[in-house]
Amino acid sequence: MKYIPATPAERERMLAAVGVGTVEDLFQDIPAEVRLKRPLDLPAPASDPDLLAHMRQLAARNVDCDRLACFLGAGAYDHFVPSTVPHLALRPEFLTAYTPYQAEIMQGELQAIYEYQSMMCELTGMDVANASMYDGASATGEAASMAADLTKRAEILISAAVHPEYRQVLRTYTSHLPITVRELPAVDGVTPVEAARAAITDATAALIIQSPNFFGSIEDGDALAEAAHAHGALLVVAVAEPISLGLLRPPGDYGADIVTGEGQPLGNALNFGGPYLGMIATREQFVRRIPGRLVGRTVDTEGRPGYVLTLQTREQHIRRAKATSNICTNESLNALIAAVYLSTLGRQGIQDVAELCARKAHYARERIAALPGYALAFDAPTFNEFVVRCPVPPAEINRKLLAHGILGGLPLGRFYPEYENGWLVCVTEQRTREEIDRLVDHLETVR
Amino acid sequence: MYPKELRYSTEHEWAKTEGKRVRIGITKFAADHLSDVVYIELPAVGTEIKFMETFGVVESVKAVSDLYAPVSGKVVEINKALVEKPEVLNTDPYGEGWMILVEPTSPGEMDKLLDAAAYAAHLGEAQS
Asked: What is the pLDDT confidence band of residue A3, given thresholds at 50, 70 and 90?
């Protein structure tokens, strides 16, 4: 970025133009008693080399997953990012592109979004996906208001096995809408089908589940879809780890009506928690209620293919107060990254990554479960995350592991007081067998 | 422009008595002002609608408007052909462009609606 300071002569000209004598005159409206009367407490200006050295020193205090063996997931996943991703996604044409209102000059950006949408549909088994949203949590909030609008019902039932932060955002989203949120307690690390059947009524707009859920367990999607549909409610499935879809059935296959999720694991770096990539997809019959931007493919007057923003009457700038959502933007660069990532891996590559995750996670799961004092918390099948009960507080284990360059799992007690000794461990394709063995060796010593 | 046999709401819906039922649509004035209609959302058959409350939504390329029920009652039929081809609303708002057929619960409500002359006068006021 260029920094162009104003010269004293330019300042004089500007002051003359607005008709004041000094810059100080511009602040006359601010009462003297609230104005700072001394210079800011800042260090003296540094030379470029000194400044860079200082910044490097500060940056070195961060620890990241390039230097740690990461066994932490819980909604953000450390996957390998192929070099095609930064190479293509950071091209200035893409990097600086804003919402593509002007189709005539933004065909590349529009086509990239269209391809992202198409890949999201394939991944989730749905008909329509939007151009992306903020993150998995807000996309799930959007799905709730979409479901309430589609069914003309006011109650959302959400499994307690959905990411706790997604549930928190859902409550924020719906706090000023005529929607009530009820939670369905999880049992043995899964959403209990019988309890779901009993809880869903003709007043329920949607049942929201996550699969694999926050505990890493794979939900019984078929049975939960049936339970929702029996009362005319929709099934919303949040997918926090879309890599799992390389191995597991897509939610569209078992009856999901809306699929939301977090696209970060698709080629996006952990980014210190954001920006992330909200995914939302639905069935064609619900396309009028999908929030956010939607790119469509069409032909121009000469019959050549072209891409445009489409169905904009859904959006707030036309639908005004009647719009389901006030989202009129997307996370284009993150979506582009996901599209480049998925294209680089291809169908086989995504299956391979998913299989590596599952195999390595199951190796770790078996080895940790075999340690004296440690046990698996739940029996449900898992993908790349699982919960173990620990003989000592998980936070203490993490502290010790960090000293050995290992980032441990999530102490579950932070979100679920009932699982105080629960430790949510994640193993992606990034972890080597040596790293897993090293983790197990350390665990053996902390009992 | 405003057929004499119809009754009109101030929100630009028309209502036509057909035996014990009432057929409902929107006026040419409304259709013209919406410009090209691209989508119509109608209630499901069996839905109870209430006098001057919304029963659906019509979308054009430039606006989205609520549809207000000129009578209370139960929806017994909806114009599925119109949902398939919403543009018919622009060409034939009083014929092929009808929206729903209702069994009214309070037929007296029809008396609260405007006749063609009063509706035209209402438009005159609205436009001035």
From this structure: low
B-chain residues within 8 Å CB-CB of A319?
59, 64
B63 touches chain A (CB under 8 A): yes
State the sign of the Cα–Cα–Cα–Cα dihedral B70, B74, B78, B83. positive
- What domain range is A433 assigned to? 69-79+347-445
Q: Could you give the ipTM of this predicted complex?
A: 0.71
Point out the domain boundary residue: A296, A320, A340.
A340
Decide: B78 and B43 in contact? Cβ < 8 Å.
Answer: yes
Taking chain B, what is the end-to-end CA distance rounded to the nearest angstrom? 19
Model confidence band, residue B22 (pLDDT cutoffs 50, 70, 90): very high
B38 contacts chain A (CB < 8 A): yes
Contact B94, B6 (CB under 8 A): yes
Does residue A375 sit in the same domain as residue A327? no
Which spans in A90-135 are helix H?
Answer: 92-95, 107-124
pLDDT for B62 equals 78
Q: What pLDDT score does A386 carry? A: 98
CATH of the domain at A177: 3.40.640.10
pTM of the model: 0.87
Q: What are the helix and strand counts (H, E) for chain A?
A: 13, 15
Contact A319 B38 (CB under 8 A): no
Q: Is A318's Cβ below 8 Å from some Cβ in B?
A: yes
Clarify whether residues A313 and A389 are in a common domain. no
Domain count, chain A: 2
Instruction: Say which residue the tokens 């169905």 belong to.
Output: A311
For A128, what's the count of Cα atoms within 13 Å in the CB-facing half-sphere?
Answer: 20
- Structure confidence at residue A1 (pLDDT): 45
Q: What integer is the mean pLDDT of A400-428?
A: 97
Q: What is the CATH number of the domain that holds A394?
A: 3.90.1150.10
Chain A interface disruption, residue of B41, B54, B59, B75, most A CBs within 10 A: B59
Distance of alpha carbon A416 from alpha carbon A418, whole angstroms: 5
Last residue of a domain, one of A340, A358, A384: A340
pLDDT at residue A322 tops 80: no
Residues A373, A269 share a domain: no
Listed by number, the residues of chain B in 68-127 with a beta carbon closer than 8 Å to a beta carbon of chain A are none
Residue A330's nearest CA partner among A356, A301, A309 is A309
pLDDT in tens, B53-66: 999 999 888 788 89
Q: In CATH, what is the architecture of B7-112?
A: Beta Barrel (2.40)
Same domain, A245 and A379: no
